[in-house]
Write a structure and sequence with these properties.
The structure holds three protein chains of three kinds. By secondary structure, chain A is mainly alpha-helical. The chains are: A mainly alpha, B alpha/beta, C mainly alpha. Chains A and C meet through helix 5, helix 6, helix 11 and helix 13 of A and helix 4, helix 9 and helix 11 of C. Chain C: GO terms for molecular function: L-isoleucine transmembrane transporter activity; L-leucine transmembrane transporter activity; L-phenylalanine transmembrane transporter activity; L-valine transmembrane transporter activity.
Chain lengths: 411, 236, 305
Amino acid sequence: MATTRSTDAAARGAYIEAPAPLHARPAPLSGLLAPQRFMNTTGLLLFILALSVPFITASPYVISILTSAFIYVMIAMGLNVVVGYAGLLDLGYIAFVAVGAYTSGILTTQFGFSMFETIPIVILACVLAGVVIGGPTLRLRSDYLAIVTLGFGEIIRITATNLSITGGASGIHGIPTWSFFGWSFADGLELFGITFTSKVLFYFFVVIVALGLATVGAARLSRGKLGRAWKSIRDDEDASEAMGINGYTTKLSAYIIGAVWGGVAGSLLASHLSAISPPSFEFLYSALILMAVVLGGMGSTPGVIIGALFVSLAPEFLREFSEWRYLIFGVLLVVVMIFRPAGLWPANAVLPFLKKRRIEPLTTTNIPWAAEAKQAAEAKQAADAAQGRDGDAARGPAENGSGAGRDGGAR
Amino acid sequence: MSALVLADVDLYYHRVQALDRLSIDVQENEIVALLGNNGAGKTSTLSMISGLVRPNAGSVTWRGQDLAKLQPWDIVAAGLLHIPEGRRIFSTMTVHENLLIGGYLVKDQKLIRQRADEAYALMPRLAERRSQQGGTLSGGEQQMLALGRALVGGPKLLLLDEPSMGLAPLVVKQVMQIIEHVRRNGTTVLLVEQNARAALRIADRAYVIEGGSVAMSGTADELAADPRVIEAYLGA
Amino acid sequence: MIEFITGDLFQLIWNGLFVGSFYALVALGYSMVYGIIKLLNFAHGDIYMLGSFIAFVLLGSVIGFLGTASLPILLLVLLITMILTGGIGVLIERVAYRPLRNSPRLAVLITAVGVSFTLEYGVRQIFGPAPEVFPFRLSGESVEVLGGRVSVPQIVLMVIAALLMWVLQLYVMRSKEGRAMRAIALDPRATLLMGVNVNRVISRTFFIGSALAGAAGVMAGAYYGSIDFLMGFTIGLKAFTAAVIGGIGNLYGAMLGGLVLGLLESFGTFVLGGEWRDVFTFACLILFLSIRPTGILGARIAERM
């Protein structure tokens, strides 16, 4: 079809041929050390490693901490969509986690839903919240979003404290774990002679959902058309709009997708903790998730994973520093933004030992007759300089002193 | 005596070269025009002189003083005033306030008031709109205001970036007359213009800039008569 | 109903204006800094908190020496605190914000969050998480006015606030330096070409804004009597809301916005109950941003940097 169209149009003289590219496109990289394949393989290995942890240690403490950490990773990936890909500073992200957690919590404890059944409602609630908050605010300067989202975080927390359906200041307890079609994790599982407890089953579930689906899903999104739109809006909104990308809907979609991610993670969190209350959703936690994303590397999947693991696990390993923890995080944030704003593992960064694509540098082109005139003028200057080197004659009508070099100019 | 000398100046914006071994000079009390197409480097030249960007190589001197290391406010203190492209007057400040801020570095309050009065005398439309907000003025009036603002600063060298842009021919004529008046009072002028015809009419000498360096130079009459200039810029 | 009109109504208005003057003082700094470098200085509310803690320390020492304190001493402490918080503001700008002058806005905002955290948890490290009792409490009788109670300390504080705002207004609107500040808010590049040392003017703006926030912190400590390391968090949000309501970057807007916010809160809590106060405030914020983002008096900021 394309050829017939082109020959017809060409016959009419209405078809413009695109110019040939200046350089041939470099061949795609292959082999294990090609960055994409390497990262995918490494990710898969780590995923399998995570799944095998319960076989290595039976300690419920370790399982519980890792479950928390991986839920944290999912939350951070959600914020990464908003902050890292789309460049929107969200300072109240924990609010979406709270919406998910409370929605699941209320529906399961008071209305007899199963956790699985609450998910559609959680998604709906988060979409609604995202539209209500992001809708008016994203039309404006992106600086405003930061404060508004902060306010939203506070609104959710205060509302949860004031309403009785959310359990007021003491929150909701007794939130069940997940169940599917009548069989719940709480029942445990016997396979090949190994007993899997409820917590371990939930751990597997979290690894699959949070590390597997959510993380890979977010990374995939970033490489797709929507992800590209987000990044172009982040880098230069005016230029993007000039290319037909609707800044407003693009930003809103990032915000809402981030909201849904957070909400589902909130449901997981509610199951994990089995009891939730307003103090778990203070601004402090929004800030910590932000730090995870920023310190790890905004917009970078490996970076954010590392950041989230660091922020959630560091307090366990650095117990002596727990008092100083937040102060250090604050200072770290400032230092990182000044000296290494891309974070620990910047987005699009390639490990040094992996293969890189070679791209030829381009030369700039000039207007034909100007290039000739310039060459003539330079030849003339060179001739004058050669002549004037013996004497004191200056170049052109300029003053004394050889103007070449940085310290030209009469003293 | 050469007042302003640019010698072998290179300027890069990241990896893009804007100026390539550019060498021009302006004598005391001259009007020199810089002509050329968009992207040729004319605005970069002015921004470099006024200190908004720093040259990567070469030297920029004014009356012997090296400007390349000075901060923009020190360059203004030396008497070099740059009226940027697009006027850029302060839209929510009144005409009078705009003039006053032109005198920011002038110590003597009376001198500021005197120069402002001179500006009003030179451009009576400004006097009429004295208490109006700058943003409500027409394009031509805003250009006058920008000029007046510079005059209150008492410039020794005036750098003008496309003063005629977007203005009606009659207003362009007025603006050029004001520039000539300014020169008569002892100021040196470096004028960047796309409107080559108007520029060559008041300039003493001119340069044609292409691809970041000088492609042609000479007196205004010489260039106005040159067939290449006529074809490229004077619309013959 | 009649009693409401004469009694409660006046009380609500008075209380609203009183709290509103605190908001206005903090909103001024927020608005000025945003106007001049387009930064929502997230740490601004924490400067307010620092002001109260600095005064806490100073007053504590004075009372330690002299055994007692009085209003003139409070005023002296207020002055010293203002200078110190102003200086801290300048320091923060130099260290944390100026290096990022040419970075994308997201980066500076995040840095501001980091600064805020540092200030909050730094104070927490030094003073502990529990609230401190302010060593000097303003006391005085109340007077019955139009069916409401008006206390002398309230009048004193509002007079101080009004005085500060009046002096500020004179400076920004009439003086050469004030004009330079307004010019930078409108067009930083053109202002550079006027010979203005933009860095110095920005520092000065931070000084003034932080000094005002510090003053509000001292007055809050003296009036409410209790200070804690997180008290700046909420006030920062309220100050931003006030600035938006009045018109961001607009001097008079910040003052008006503060008073309007105080009144809105006063009436809002009367209708909804005290525990919903902050929710009501943010609802107002979102409402204004949806309907009239430029604020009551209009914004005064550069459209392009």
